[in-house]
Design goal:
By secondary structure, this protein is mainly α. The protein has one domain. The chain has three helices and no strands.
Length: 83
């Protein structure tokens, strides 16, 4: 379960960083063209909501299969027997 959370968290961090950098560059280019002052506003509420939804989705996506595997015997899992 920790591996799935690490993958999702790293994707959120890298995706947010790349998105902010890309949006800043495009906005700076447009603002330079129109000669307006540059200001960066980041939607922190959206980021927090995205983190909460990603954590919830990851928890349910990992816990449901793990619970079904935990209820079976190790020998049945290795042999591939569905009980």
């Amino acid at each position: 379960m920790y591996e799935a959370f690490a993958v999702v968290l790293s994707a959120v961090i890298l995706g947010s960083a790349v998105g902010v950098i890309t949006a800043s560059l495009v906005t700076a280019q447009l603002i330079l063209f129109f000669q307006f002052p540059f200001s960066l506003s980041f939607p922190y509420e959206v980021l927090i909501a995205m983190l909460i939804m990603a954590a919830g989705t990851t928890y349910y996506a990992v816990s449901i299969p793990v619970q079904s595997v935990n209820e079976r015997e190790v020998s049945a899992i290795i042999k591939g027997i569905d009980v």
